[in-house]
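Fold this sequence, please.
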Amino acid sequence: MKIEIWSDFVCPFCYIGKRRLELALDKFEYSNEVKIVFRSFELDPNAKKVYSESIHELIAKKYSIPLEQAKASNNQLVNQAKELGLNYNFDDLQPTNTFDAHRLVHYAKFENKINELTERLLKAYFIDSLNLSDIKVLSKLALEVGLDENKALSILESNKYSSDVRADEELASNIGVTGVPFFVFNNKYAVSGAQPPELFLEVLEKVKNEDLTL
């Protein structure tokens, strides 16, 4: 069984959705048969690499809401994440552009380290408050998951894997993905958003049962 996941590293629901899917897989009898494919999606392709405003200020500006309302909304996400053992730190987040991080993940995919790097990048952004557009930061994160730091840095200094990122994004557009996380099971069933583990498990079992009856 193949599960394709379109996500972005600065998307709070993507980390939550990833954890909820993992909880479902923990209860799925055939989890060892599941192959997960992470695909690139940028929430904001035009995002700057560095912002002077906090994430609270950017959210307030984007949705034309008071700053306190933005903070309250973000606190709700912090609480959701905490239920899954994820300690989001919204006060120190460094909003940024994620294109280079996505390029690096395609290198990790080539080296069979995509799961490890995806997890590390999400943690780096939401918990460790690192800047995911800083290529030195990215190359050190690559090293942490067992990739070659110098090769990672060389890739990031070039345009390598740019076309792979764009291909994922084009595929997302072609199948109507407008927001993430977005999960596609066996090219047949789609789940949008950070749904409860129970729903993921229901889809997993449905797909498996259909396979068994073929």
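The CA atoms of residues 155 and 174 lie 28 Å apart. The longest helix spans residues 197-213.
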